[in-house]
Amino acid sequence: MMSEFYSLKGVAYSKLNFNKEAQKLFSCSTQLSDTNLTRTWINWGDFLLKQSSVLNDDESILICYLNACKDLIEIKARSVLSKIFYLLSRDNENNNDNKLSICIERYLSLIPVQHWLFWLPQIMNKLIRNESSQCMFAILNELIRLYPQAVYVQIKKHLKKLIENNTDEKPVPLTPTTPTIENSLNLPTISYRQQAINNLNRLEQILLEQHPTIVRTLDIIIEQLNTINETLFEYIIKRLYQCQRKIYQDLFENKKDLSEDVKQIIQHLKEILNNDEKNFGNIKQIQIQFFSDFNERFVMVDKSYSVNPISYDNSK
Prior knowledge:
mainly alpha, disordered C terminus
């Protein structure tokens, strides 16, 4: 009870800009009790964060938030972890020798692993951008231990994007950026894209070592899904969606007549629908929907727009 009183008193003093007194009150509050200090740590961290431009002590702010996360449930810990990721971004911008990353690694065992699961996409993005990569690897190691499937999906998704993206990016050195005699030499460099692929491959190897059965099973499932060809119904639906998007772009975004590509897609789908009507049960329903939506409404819109675009715009 006394600990909570000191914490609230520290919040009040911070509102009145009595910063030194507030700092002492928060410190006393954490020393008076060993339990129920979650709110005290959050208040102290928020106070230090507001004073960060003066104090310039991000490590103390991070320690406050990490201590607060220990006893919070996962949903309530999200707001605190968002501030931790914000501090990490500042650490990367200021080139502080990864002090905050090292601090997170020290406290990582005290934070429940499920707290990080919600932030898995952000963790993967930081790993790909090579920001606090050692810290991200430590967090992902904990996630791999309990949630291998979630990490597997993220690895495959980002690997696919990086492999498809062949754009060259500026190179980064393979060695640390601290000034040394060796850095004055012509050291080998590697692109950001290749560095990201290497990080993901390393993470995939860690996942395979810890959960070989799960990884092989998921690989088999993905391989089987890739070998399955789309049915005629799925092909028609996909082409209809492509046609719909193209028509919308031509008529509403680009404000021009229907392109030849759209007309060719429509004609191609007409031939498929007419030829396979007897062999495919759902063709009749698709055919009715297709002719009503695309032949009548969109073609009429195209004609009215091409005849008098000014009156068409005013009517809409």
